[in-house]
Amino acid sequence: MSRILCLLTAATLAGTLAACSGEPGARTLMPTVMPAGTAAPVAAPAAAVRAPRSVGAALPPTGSGSYTDKQGSFSYVYYVPSNGAPPYPTVLALHGCLEDPAGFEAGTRWFEDAEANGYVVVMPQHLVGTGADVNPKGCYEYWNNHYRTTGEPEVLVGLLKDLGRRVPMDRTRMYVTGMSSGGAMTVALAATYPDFFAAAAVGSGTEYQPCATDNVMQCYAALTVQQPNQDPTASGQAAFRAAAGSGGKPIPVILFQGDADTVVAPFNLPQALTSIAVMNDGIASFGRFPGVWNATPTAQDSGQVPGGYAYDHYSADNGMLDWTIVHGMNHAWSGGVADPSSNASDGNNYNDPKGPNETLAFRTFLFRYHR
């Protein structure tokens, strides 16, 4: 059977996504193994252009809390919408280095989108300093070896389970997203908990375990200049082993990357795509890695934000691997609100309103899937 593609432009996304996918709302995941050369009709959701959004003060969180277990601790804020019906779909949103939840929300406006669309958002705060649970720039520690029972992924999932005892969350619709180090941790969470998260969204992130060292400063440098020992195939195989025994299924992932990024260089995008595809290939085949899943695009479209950047959008693996390259954008949340309230602690702002709306594109993709 020939592959049936539905190529969407940004202008037609909202009106045609449901028609192309064949059903509205969330849908179940694809079969465990997709036979080579076959695919169900699937929409390739283009990165939507900017929708009208507030540029005033960000919405305040509904509440805050903290969570500690033997692997570490996090404080957090969360937002529960005034509309929608519990149990709620839930998005775990992870800030980047030098950021905090308040600034991350001010730029991304996840709370604003959650209020409009009836879901919960949880934003942890990574500690800054030195010691076992912290680091100099407050980055999520993507450089460490992560498994289900060790490190920050275990703490973050424990945090969600703990908060879920007080806030009604739909355990079949748990999602994770992040920017920069938070994007890299998103990949780590997708690898270690494919049975917990229904889908993942990565902003300017990396492959699983992108560094061959646990030295923080060396790992920062490795994201700017490609290292000879960075092997995305080996990364994907390690990601598969990280979830061994979880009973998880291949996890849908969407990624955004600026092609002028000087912090997480553009080479990290193809590395991450290959790593994720190999991981899903291993999960789907119980470790045989037949190469059914790969990062070869099967759908492509392009767009232009009025007065802003052009972008190219691609889709592979029956729509479950999705990525957008924003031309001319540096290290930033595309379509974010760039004002002093969203500045990072170094005084820089990692949001760019000239790009397509990353928050909208991510939520649109994530909500297509449930466990």
Can you describe what's shown?
25% of the residues lie in helices and 21% in strands. The chain is an alpha/beta fold. The chain has a single domain, classed as Alpha/Beta hydrolase fold, catalytic domain (Rossmann fold), CATH 3.40.50.1820. Strands 3-4-6-5-7-8-9-12-11-10 form a 10-stranded mixed β-sheet, sandwiched between helices. It has a two-stranded parallel ribbon with strand order 1-2. α7 crosses α8. The longest helix is centred in the C-terminal third of the chain and has 17 residues. It starts with a strand and ends in a 5-residue tail after the last helix.
Report the biggest beta sheet as strand number plus sense, adding barrel if it closes.
Answer: 10 strands, mixed
Shape call: globular
Specify the structural class. alpha/beta
Question: What letter string, H or E per element, gives the SSE order?
Answer: EHEEEEHHEHEHEHHEHEEEEEH
Strand order, main sheet: write it out: 3-4-6-5-7-8-9-12-11-10
Strand content: 15-25%
The CATH topology is Rossmann fold
Helicity, as a percent range: 25-40%
Cα gyration radius (Å): 19 Å
Taking pLDDT < 50 over at least 5 consecutive residues as the criterion, the unreliable ranges are 1-52
Distance between the termini: 27 Å
